[in-house]
Specification:
182 residues, mainly alpha, 3-stranded antiparallel sheet, 3 strands, 69% helix, elongated
């Protein structure tokens, strides 16, 4: 249903403004609006002109205070959105950095545990070489997993930093537009 209203709104906005007139007709106490003149059986007809106001000449290029105020409000609203997006990206970066350091700490603890197990195996010859080989493979596998996770985290951070830079540029441009409009 929302898509239908969006489509209707777009069609109304794209309509030819030169021929834009709305006719209001009253019949039996009901008011009907149409883009065509009322037929003969209607009681009353009035025309509401919706054509745009003539554009100002080159001598009158200064925008009206009402238009300036509306534009300023719109720019400030867009600035608030951009500022919120910047803060959210900064929060995402901080969370990713915290997760990366937690991941690194967990990896170091896991490797330390595996190394202590390996030392215990070497001290106790009854475990044999096969068990030592298994622990070494676990250490190697864990190092590979950690390297992959860290690469993913670095890629995410790079992407977040790129997005943050773009958002800060947008916010700066909006701030400059607000200053020019004020």
């Amino acid at each position: 249903m929302q898509k239908i209203w969006i489509l209707i709104s777009l069609l109304i906005l794209c309509a030819d403004p030169a021929s834009a007139a709305i006719y209001r007709c009253s019949s039996n106490g009901k008011t009907i609006y149409s883009d065509r003149p009322c037929s003969n059986n209607r009681e009353k007809m009035s025309v509401v002109d919706t054509s745009p106001a003539p554009s100002p000449s080159r001598d009158q290029s200064a925008p009206s205070p009402a238009k300036n105020s509306a534009q300023l409000t719109h720019l400030r609203f867009r600035y608030e959105i951009a500022d919120n997006e910047v803060r959210q990206k900064e929060k995402d970066i901080d969370e990713t950095i915290a997760l990366t350091s937690e991941l690194e700490k967990a990896h170091q603890e896991k490797i330390a545990a595996l190394n202590s197990e390996l030392k215990r195996i070497y001290r106790n010859s009854s475990y044999g070489k096969y068990r030592a080989h298994q622990v070494k493979q676990k250490i190697q596998t864990e190092n590979i997993r950690f390297a992959n996770r860290m690469a993913i985290a670095r890629n995410r951070l790079n992407s977040l930093y790129e997005d943050l830079g773009r958002l800060k540029d947008d916010r700066y441009r909006l701030q400059q537009a607000i200053r020019q409009t004020e």
